[in-house]
Amino acid sequence: MAVSASSNPITSVQPNSSPITSVQPQQYGGSPLYNQQQSTNPQLLTRLNLDLRGQMFPVERETLMLLPESVLLGLFPQGLILSKPASWEGADDGVFTVDFDPDCFEYILKFWSNAQEKFYGTPTSIGLFHLQQNITSVSSGSGSGSGNDLTSFTDQSQNPLLSKQAIIVLREELEFFSITKSNHIAKTNLQNGLPNDELKYLKKQCGKSLENKKSIFAALERNVSSVGNAAEAHLIDMLCMSGFNRTDEWGFRACEPSRNVITSMALVLLKTGIIHPSEDNKDGSNNVPYIDAQQMGTAQKLLLFWRKPARKCWWDGVEVEIPASSTAKQGDVQTVKVWARRVWTLELSLVG
C-alpha cells in the first residue's frame, strides 16, 4: 500500500516544527558495505572478525548486511570494503577494529536472531511466515476499509509486512554538559585548559546518573509538556501504537568511554495488525490469521523509514544529585544542573 506523506504525523508537519527529519541521502545512501549484485563474487569476504573494543565477534557477511543502516553507519562511519586485496592469502575472513560498544552489538545480534526464529521458524518449529501464507483470502478482522484497501493489505506484492519481519530501531546519542557553580572545587585549569580530578569525577557521576534514567519517552514527554509541541506528541503516540509502550526502557544504555556521551538503543517488533488466533482453538474454526486494517494502516506508515533513517535533535535541561566530592561521606550530595543534547535516530528494518 502506497502511503501518502501527508498521512504521516511526522512528515505532515511543517519542516520548522517537525520533530524528526530525514537524513540526507548521501549520509544513508544505500549499504556502505557491499553491492548486493556482487554477493556471489568469490573475491568478497564471507566472514568478518569484528574487534569491538577488545571483544571479538565472528560475524557472517550476510548476517551483518541484515542489520539496519543506522547501525551499520555507527559500526563503519567511513564505510567498509569487503573485497579481498589482490595479495590476500589464507582464511576467508578478516579482522576489523571497530569503535562500538560490544554489549550493544550483542544486544542487537540476539534480538535479530530471536526475531528471525520467531518469524521464519526453526527446523523443529513453524514460524509466523508460514502461517501467514493463507491470509490472502481473509478479510480484515476489524471489518473496516474498502475492498481495494483490503487487497493492498493481503497482497504480498504490495505489502512487504506479510513476508518480512519488521523491527523498529530507535537509537539515542546523548551528549551532556555539567554546569558547575562559581568557586566550586571542580574546575578547569585556566593555564592548560584541562579539568582537575574533581571535575572529572563530577562529570563521571553526572553521566552515571543520566545513564540510570532509562525511560525512553520521559525526556521527550518533558519537552512536549514544556513547549506544547503537538508533532512530538504525535510521534510518541505513533511509536506506542506501533510496538512501544510509554513506560518502556532502553534495551541498552551506557556511557561511552572517555566521552561525555551516553548511547542508548531500543528494538521492538513492529505491531503489524496481523492477528494469529490462539493455538488453544481446538475446533479448528478461525485458525487462519487475519488483519486488523486500522493497525496495519498505522504499521505501513512506518515503511517510510525503511532504509531511510530519520533524526531528531533537541536540548534538555535536568538536575541530578551526585556525591558532593570524590572524598565526600555517604549521603553528602550536591545538585548539579546538566544540559543534554539528545539525538534520536528512527529506522524501520525488514528482515528478509
Structure commentary:
The longest helix is centred in the N-terminal third of the chain and has 19 residues. The protein is globular and about 70 Å long. Strand 6 and strand 7 form a beta hairpin. It has nine helices and eleven strands. It has a six-stranded antiparallel β-sheet with strand order 1-10-11-5-7-6. The chain is an alpha+beta fold and 352 residues long. The chain has one domain. The N terminus is likely disordered. Helix 7 runs antiparallel to helix 8. InterPro entries: SKP1/BTB/POZ_sf (IPR011333). This is Phosphatase activator.
| Average residue-wise pLDDT | 80
Report the sheet-strand fraction: 15-25%
SSE series? EEEHHEHHHEHHHEEEEHEE
Main β-sheet, in a few words?
A: 6 strands, antiparallel
Whole-number tally of structural domains: 1
Strand segment tally: 11
The number of helical elements comes to 9
- Structural class per helix/strand content? alpha+beta
Radius of gyration: 24 Å
InterPro entries: SKP1/BTB/POZ_sf
Protein name: Phosphatase activator
Organism: Kwoniella dendrophila CBS 6074
Region (Disordered): 1-36
